[in-house]
Predict the 3D structure of the following.
Amino acid sequence: MIAYLSLLLRLAIWFLLTADFSLANITIGFCVALLLPPRFAPPPVLKEWLRTLWEIIVAIPIAYWEALEMIFRPHTREEIALEQVKPNRTPGLIFLDIFSITFTPKTIVLKYHQDGWYEVHRVRRTKRR
């Protein structure tokens, strides 16, 4: 089951890069996804994949809300923070974590440290006194 999720993730990345859904591109993308070497990492649990996909779905309305909030109430304070990666994350799940953090307008991942940290840039409102 996890191999299918990995294949689907590779195909999704292919379609995001090419933005072409012709039959030839689908065939090429499928071949590329199959030919890419597998990652030698512990297999992720299906529960973790579903939890991460749910976080991405929840991030969509949050992204709209944050965009409207930034339009009507200016955010002038910036900070860079380190966030720890959840334990036992495979490269595919780390990619989805970075995607869900970067998807919202107020945050972006600047760097992924191999020792298990994300460097996250945040924009916040200035507190009124």
